[in-house]
Design brief:
heterodimer, A: mainly beta, six-stranded mixed sheet, five-stranded antiparallel sheet, 11 strands, globular, B: mainly beta, seven-stranded mixed sheet, four-stranded antiparallel sheet
Chain lengths: ~110, ~110
């Protein structure tokens, strides 16, 4: 089936630094979703992207829908300790029906104060 | 506004026992989903439901049973629990007509001894 590859798998940064992570696929996606999961909690939707080339912000977070439709990027500016968590990308697989999502395995972010 | 809730949050059971995990949403979303999350595998879809009395298998359905007699509830039953079903289980829901965004509950951590 279609897979989403996230990189890096983990990041260790200092508070105040900017963060960039990405999600790639060998197949085209028509939607890209970015979620954050805090320890012991369920994933929370951060940003949804529906159009190739789209750039969307949510506070200090900015996500982009790649022009090729095979990738997406998430940037966090001026990181703070509460940014710690696992960030997942997700999208509906082609041919699988839009009701389902496939998820990347996540990027684990650690922020040192 | 409770949103989507899961119970219990933590459960320890023994091999061979039947266990039911509950999921309740107050949004009247048509779609509901059950995922399991394991290290190295990310989020994997177990079952989903498009509406009351309509359910379908996901990626890893073996050993699980679902039902959906009411729109707001989507229980997941492990008929005879096995150690390999030790995992964190997440329920999610989404609106039928707007995008692909799914909204997750807080999760149930299940340990099978």
């Amino acid at each position: 089936g279609q897979q989403l590859n996230q990189s890096p798998q983990s990041m260790f940064i200092q508070e105040g630094e900017d963060v960039s992570m990405n999600c790639t696929s060998s197949s085209i996606f028509n939607t890209w979703l970015w979620y954050k999961q805090d320890p012991g909690e369920g994933p929370v939707l951060l940003i949804a992207l529906y159009k190739a080339g789209e750039l969307t912000s949510n506070g200090r977070l900015t996500a982009q829908f790649g022009i090729t439709r095979k990738d997406s990027f998430l940037n966090i500016s001026a990181s703070i300790p509460s940014d710690v968590g696992i960030y997942f990308c997700a999208g509906p697989p082609r041919g699988g029906g839009s009701e389902k999502l496939v998820f990347g395995k996540g990027t684990k972010l650690t922020v040192n104060p | 506004d409770a949103g989507i809730t899961q119970s219990p949050r933590y459960k320890i059971t023994e091999t061979g026992r039947q266990v039911t995990l509950m999921c309740h949403q107050t949004w009247s979303h048509s779609y509901m989903f059950w995922y399991r999350q394991d290290l190295g595998h990310g989020l994997r879809l177990i079952y989903y439901s498009a509406a009351a009395d309509i359910t379908d298998k996901g990626e890893v359905p073996d050993g699980y049973v679902v039902s959906r007699s009411k729109t707001e509830n989507f229980p997941l039953t492990l008929e005879s629990a096995t150690r390999s079903q030790t995992s964190v289980y997440f329920c999610a829901s989404r609106i039928s007509y707007a995008g692909n965004e799914q909204f997750f509950g807080p999760g149930t951590r299940l340990t099978v001894l």
